[in-house]
Amino acid sequence: MRGTKDLLEDLAERLDCIYLSDLRTEKYRSRAVHAALEFSPEDYSVFQWRDAANYLLDLTEPPQTTAEARKLLQEWEAAFPSKN
What is the 3-class SS of the chain, one letter each residue? Predict the structure, then answer.
């Protein structure tokens, strides 16, 4: 496992966000999704992946597994590629 053991906090730190909520802004969301997918699935618990996917993608129902969370992040990244 990496850093703080909290996926959202590690993403915010990696992207130099001042606030965790910055991850959901237009400036950071694509970069945050891309950065999350660079982490190994084993780096964080299923709960961390579920929370991150739910938070970043503003889902109505959170994914149930790490694989499902990562698949949703991959699909979002494909639909909204980063401009950076």
Answer: CCCCCCHHHHHHHHCCCCCHHHHHCCCCHHHHHHHHHHCCHHHCCHHHHHHHHHHHHCCCCCCCCHHHHHHHHHHHHHHCCCCC
83: nearest Cα among 21, 33, 39, 16: 33
- Spatial separation of the C-alpha atoms in residues 41 and 27, rounded to whole Å: 25
Average pLDDT for residues 11-36, to the nearest whole number? 96
Domain boundaries, the chain: 7-79
Please report the pLDDT score of residue 39 as a whole number. 96
